[in-house]
Design a protein that fits this description.
Blueprint lengths: L1 H5 L26 H22 L6 H26 L4 H24 L4 H22 L4 H8 L1
Helix pairs in contact: 2-3, 2-5, 3-4, 4-5
Length: about 150
């Protein structure tokens, strides 16, 4: 299953102290340095947030999640501009999906606001961050990978 390649370490029981919640497989690189670096940074940010939550550290959680969301919005903009420049025919569909993800960002922020006082919010935040990444990288970005590859040849 494709999703397992990005979501390698699903539970704390499956991870050692040095393992990350999310690891990005090479199958999910787009062969576009700027976007691949963005995806790597998004994965790093999710791993940093989830690691702190696993350790029970909730200070600055809201600020850290806000930084993740702001970076994600910048990533979406960079990605859409790249696709426009490349002449990708489904840019409007891709942009629509990004707008659907904006709504999920609101829920993620709500969980972050409640994380310090609520265990369920912490668990939900971890889960939603990982699914958010999967939704962006797997559900939509892989749709244009072959187009990028075709344009390079």
């Amino acid at each position: 299953m494709v999703a397992k390649e990005i979501f390698l370490n699903q539970t704390t029981a499956n991870r050692g102290a040095d393992k990350k919640m999310v690891e990005l497989s090479e199958n999910f690189t787009l062969e576009c340095d700027e976007l691949d670096k963005d995806h790597e940074r998004l994965v790093e940010m999710v791993n940093e947030i989830t690691a702190k939550l696993e350790e029970g550290i909730t200070e600055n959680c809201e600020d850290t999640v806000r930084a993740f969301i702001n970076f994600t919005k910048g990533h979406f903009n960079r990605e859409e501009q790249f696709l426009i420049k490349l002449g990708y025919p489904d840019v409007s569909k891709h942009r629509k999906h990004h707008h659907e993800l904006y709504e999920k960002m609101d829920h993620i922020m709500e969980f972050a606001r409640s994380a310090s006082a609520n265990e369920l919010a912490r668990k939900s935040l971890k889960k939603e961050l990982v699914f958010f990444l999967m939704d962006d990288v797997i559900t939509t970005d892989l749709d244009f990978k072959s187009f990028i590859g075709g344009e390079k040849t």
